[in-house]
Amino acid sequence: MMDEKSNKQYLNIKVPQGSAFKIQTDKSFVKLHQLLCVVGKRGSGKTVFIVNFLRMMKEQGCLDKLILITPTYESNKANFKDLPVDEENIINPDDPTAVQQIRNIVDSERDLLDEYYEKIDRWNELMKQIKSRRPIDELDEDLLEEFGEEMKKPTHYLDGRKPVIACFVDDALGTKIYGNKSGLSNLVILHRHLGVSKALGSALGITMIFATQSYKSNVYGISPTIRNNCTSIAIFKTKSDKELQGIQEEIAGFCTRQEFMNVYDQAMHECGCGCKSDHNILFVDTSPHDGNSNFRKNMNCQITPRVKNESI
Predict the structure, then answer these.
(1) Crossing angle of helices 257-268 and 241-250, rounded to 10°
(2) Is the terminal CB of the chain with fewer CB neighbours within 10 Å at N or C?
(3) Tell me, what DSSP letter sits at residue 288?
(4) What one-character-per-residue DSSP string does 186-201 give?
(5) Does one domain contain both 230 and 183?
């Protein structure tokens, strides 16, 4: 029978060690993997912002493969010229297999990694036998045959590091990928857990980025599943109070309506950093690095609410 003290310890909630965000990024940036939704009217600069966000990932060594779900790649090709885009990984959002193709790309990267580590294990075993100075006829024939006369050590294009993969869904509002049967919602829920590597005992995961003109659309829009799982939202200037209210309501867990409207107003106005008000964004980060604000004007100006922390 437990005494009173041990019973209290039994009831304590134990938090697992580690973090849901496994990729190392600079503290001035955001944590990865992300589920980012970028909201703005046509011509507001959504694609330009996202391309720059992807560039920031790449410059930190945190973007190895980019999947594009878009029907407009050919007309926007120049935007992606410095990013790791393989044209085999450009998928039509009306393709009913689009989500499965995303999964297949991640799994293929996982398989490359697992195969590399399996080969390294066999290579190390062969080197161990050779260094033991066994007679040549006592060496493992299968290992000798596998590595051949050249005896080349197995390689991996990232030297065994897990690839960082991102998927950008662009110009897809109204297409099948946002339909109920596409499997996109399930992919979003599991985005950090895709591509589990047996060799490493962890998942590769994927950063998902969505560009949309409407945060809440009645037909083939950004579903509640996607919106409710967002780790960050980038909001361009809008005249729709209803849309702003809808966004605020879904991030109400850490932000009151008054606070949200205050940081939105700060983000939309010019300041000493030289940002142009027509293309400013409010960037909302629900899980920032320690010491960072939940809010930024663009990516380089951290801002905080200038109101009392009370709901209205």
Answers:
(1) 120
(2) N
(3) P
(4) HHHHTGGG-SEETTTT
(5) yes
Per DSSP bridges, beta strands 295-297 and 301-303 are antiparallel
Instruction: Kindly state whether residues 189 and 294 are assigned to the same domain.
Output: no
Of 11 and 146, more confident: 146
Count Cβ atoms within 10 A of the Cβ of residue 198 and give its class: 0-12 exposed, 13-18 middle, 19 or more buried: exposed
For residue 259, the number of C-alpha atoms closer than 13 Å in the C-beta half-sphere is: 19
Looking at the 3D structure of the chain, how many domains does it have?
Answer: 2
pLDDT digits (tens, 9 = 90+) for 70-117: 999 999 899 999 999 999 999 999 999 999 999 999 999 999 999 999
User: Is the confidence at residue 312, as pLDDT, over 50?
Assistant: no
Instruction: Let me know if residue 46 belongs to a domain.
Output: yes
Identify the pLDDT of residue 198. 95
Comparing 28-37, 130-139, 176-185, which segment has the lowest mean pLDDT? 130-139
Q: Is residue 52 part of a domain?
A: yes
Show the tokens assigned to 255.
């932000």
What residues pair up with 295 in beta bridges, in sequence order?
Answer: 284, 303
- Residue-range definition of the domain harbouring residue 304: 240-312
Whether residue 260 sits in one domain with residue 219: no
CATH of the domain at 196: 3.40.50.300
pLDDT tens per residue across span 231-246: 999 999 988 888 899 8
